[in-house]
Specification:
The complex is a heterodimer of chains A (134) and B (181).
Chain A lengths: L1 E6 L5 E7 L20 E3 L4 E7 L1 H6 L2 H12 L3 H16 L3 E7 L4 E5 L3 E8 L4 E6 L1
Antiparallel strand pairs in A: 1-2, 3-4, 4-5, 5-6, 7-8
Chain B lengths: L3 E9 L8 H23 L4 H13 L20 E7 L4 E8 L5 H11 L4 E3 H10 L13 H23 L2 E2 L4 E2 L3
Helix pairs in contact in B: 1-2, 2-3
The chains are: A alpha+beta (134), B alpha+beta (181).
């Protein structure tokens, strides 16, 4: 699974996710990547999120929308909301994975509870971060 | 930040000890190539939607990631691809699931969002829509990579072993075979 979230100069947020799914999957199994609210979500009022993880749990936890909702209804920061969902809600269900996100102010988050996540971020000044391991 | 971009290439049990320096360098290089495509679009005043689509295209076109070329295989030994995109400006969204011949599924998801009255299309209908929208259609073999196919064979073998092992638990010497129930 691959994903991207972006904030543009007009203050618009967007999120996208693309995947080949799960090895050896049968019966037309679909994971969270194409499910709006689970694998992908964007709302100019809060944040843009793209997920990668154990699809069944990311659907049940509605991960991407949940992070936006925690910001919207509980006033959490993007970092706090991402931590709450990825380090608590998803593992409590038995799932694992991670998200990338950016909020309306350009704050960037890469939160995951697995050994690693291929990830990179770049801000307006061109500061680049690339990571693979925890 | 006035603008910003973040990407991922998947999460999981990615351990330093399991990755050669060459592989690590290849992943780092591809991640940097992809994020610079999107950053340039944003820096030049482009839209976040364009940045998301073009950045993901780079990752879909690389065999390194489980998306587009390099996708994993289903039990039937084929590649079924899914994608979704969302516009924070108006909560518009598009998604496609289970396509086998659309080269860049994220482009299809965006076409569903912008050129259809729906949010999600799947399977043959999604493929039909992709053709009507003039998106690049490829032979399913385009998505094949040796590494992912071998991964499928490993998973199947381990599954069969398990069944074999379970089956041996029911071995009945009188019929010299296994019987269940």
């Amino acid at each position: 699974t691959v994903g991207c979230v972006a904030l543009d100069k007009n203050g618009n947020l967007a999120a996208g996710t693309s995947t080949g799914g799960m090895t050896n999957k049968r019966w037309g199994r679909i994971g969270d990547a194409p499910i709006i609210g689970a694998g992908t979500y964007a709302n100019n009022a809060t944040c843009a999120v793209s997920s990668t993880g154990w699809g069944e749990y990311f659907i049940r936890a509605m991960v991407a929308h949940d992070i936006s909702a925690l910001m919207d209804y509980k006033g959490m920061s993007l970092q706090e909301a991402a931590k709450e969902v990825i380090q608590k809600k998803v593992p409590d269900l038995g799932g694992d994975g991670g998200i990338i996100a950016v909020d309306k102010d350009g704050n960037m988050v890469m939160e995951f509870n697995t050994e690693g996540m291929y990830r990179a971020s770049m801000d307006a000044s061109g500061n680049l971060t690339i990571g693979i391991y925890k | 930040n006035e603008f910003a971009i973040v990407i991922h290439g998947g999460a999981g049990t990615i351990l330093r000890k399991n990755m050669s320096p060459e592989d690590e360098a290849a992943y780092n290089a591809k991640l940097e190539e992809a994020i610079r495509v999107g950053h340039d679009i944003l820096k030049n005043g482009g839209s976040s939607l364009d940045a998301v689509e073009k950045t993901i295209n780079v990752l879909e076109n690389s065999p390194l990631f489980n998306a587009g070329k390099g996708a994993v295989f289903t039990n039937a030994g084929i590649n079924e691809l899914d994608a979704s995109i969302m516009d924070g400006k108006n909560l518009d969204a598009g998604a496609s699931a289970g396509t086998k011949t659309v080269k860049n599924p994220i482009n299809l998801a965006r076409a569903v969002m912008e050129k259809s009255p729906h949010v999600m299309l799947s399977g043959e209908g999604a493929e039909q829509f992709a053709k009507e929208q003039g998106l690049e259609i490829v032979d399913p073999s385009y998505f094949y990579t040796e590494a992912r196919f071998k991964a499928l064979e490993r998973v199947k073998a381990s599954e069969e072993n398990e069944t074999a092992r379970d089956k041996s638990a029911f071995y009945d010497p009188t019929i010299k075979d296994s019987k269940f129930g």
